[in-house]
Amino acid sequence: MAENRKQWYVLRAISGKEAKVKEVLDAAIKNTNLGQYVSQVLIPTEKVYSMRNGKKVVKERNLYSGYVFIEAELTGEVIYELRNTTNVIDFLRGRAKNSEPESLRESEVMRMLGAADDLRTPQEESPLDFIEGESVKVNDGPFSGFAGVVREVNTERKRIKVEVKIFDRPTDLELEYSQVERV
Fold first, then answer.
1. What is the pLDDT of residues 32-60, one digit of tens each?
2. Are 12 and 74 contacting, i.e. CB atoms less than 8 angstroms apart?
3. Residue 25, Cα to own-chain centre: how many angstroms?
4. How far is 54 from 136, CA to CA, in rounded Å?
């Protein structure tokens, strides 16, 4: 390669083993001369909120399953070293049979890094100020699809009490902001 500038490349990894690949590459960067050629190894993740036993649980999920992003200068044996890392299948490359690894465009890198930075910190729901008497629809949980009226708002705990009609009888539900939407 004529350029001596580091660019972003994509390694295809065995799905589910991306973290292991990152761990091995980080150790190799620290302990061998691979660190001169590879500066960053990144697995973009997003925070996913789910309800488990009535509690909100934050779980991290890979944005691009089976892919590990590296910022590297591919000279000499670097391609060989990276390709033969445990759990790495190969580089993402063009369609030609013996094509070189393709670097990502600057716009793709900025989008990926921007998304990775945005999603690294848990996204809190935007402060939704519900008003008593407002109509809402439940969008999560066992009462999903039910429409109701806000009876009480607890802004500290980000919970609201919603009155829904079940079998034509008013029933109060205590829900999180994320479980309801305005109608």
1. 888 889 988 998 888 877 777 767 788 88
2. no
3. 21
4. 20
Q: How far is CA 112 from CA 2, 10, 23, 100, 160, in A?
A: 26, 12, 20, 22, 36
Q: Model-level pTM greater than 0.90?
A: no
pLDDT per position as a tens digit, 81-137: 898 899 998 888 877 777 788 888 888 888 877 766 555 555 444 445 788 899 999
The token pair at 11 is: 């390694």
Amino acid at 57: V
Those residues with Cβ within 8 angstroms of residue 130's Cβ, 6 or more apart along the chain or in another chain: 136, 150, 153, 160, 177, 180
* CA–CA distance, 80 with 17 (Å, rounded to integer): 19
CA distance 135 to 147: 7
